[in-house]
Amino acid sequence: MTRTIDLLVENHGSICLLRPVSDAGREWCTEHLPEDATTWGGAIAVEPRYIGPIADGAVADGLVVR
Asked: Domain limits of the chain?
C-alpha cells in the first residue's frame, strides 16, 4: 500500500520550505505551527535548524514527510 505524502520539505540552503500537500498536512501545520509563520508560495519558510524537529514531530503524529 502506498501512503500519500502529507508534507514536502524543500531545502534551499539558507531556508527550507515546508509544503503541506494533503489535507492532513495542512491541518497539522495549522495545529502545530505559529499563525504568524512566514509563508512563501503556499509553503511555510523554516530555518534549517528547525526543520528536523518539525518533520520529526509530524512523522511521530503519523504523517508522511519527504
From this structure: 7-60
